[in-house]
Amino acid sequence: MPPAKSLTKASLKTPKAAAIAGIVFSVLLLVFFWLIRSAVPADPLGSGAWLATSGRRVAFGLNLVPVAGIAFLWFIGVIRDRLGQLEDQFFATVFFGSGLLFLAMLFIAAAAIGAIVLLASSEANELMNSATFHFARAFAYLVMNVYAIKAAAVFMISTSTVALYTSFLSRWLAYLGYILACSLLFGSYYIGWSFMVLPVWVLMISSYIIVDNSRRPSTV
What pTM value is reported for the model? Predict the structure, then answer.
């Protein structure tokens, strides 16, 4: 196959791969957040009564996190590949680093909740009123609702900045990313469902990439 033809096919596959990975990440993370939010009380100091009634639902949601994380890494990789030489080293570092930080803290919070569910399967009554339960519950809450959300906001800001400089996304999506990221940075404590913002925004980006790619004439 001629080199030009191979490069053309690669350039067409990269946006599609980014869109698919972004959609998988968004859908799985939205399902996970919905399961956790509907099963676990918002108050981190609340009782552990949910362990007896919603433990299996939470465990199912936790099993979605690794797959969502892999899809998110794939999404970051193919976005960087799409940018190619247009990628600025400074914003690329912030983009990549904040994405990894968000993912790491998501895994840590999920592991803390998973440990609670695992212990509750054998020692539910003792665990509900123990200091271990309250510590793990508060730890998971702070990691997810404070630190991970701030890292997600930085990821959105850096992605929006790269989008404005390289025009690989529509400008309105970039400006929307700034607005949503600022709401996470300064108002996430007051917004109960703020952890939904990143997956919804990634879903919008992925949908835009699919639509934009379908409008372009294919050359083979």
Answer: 0.81
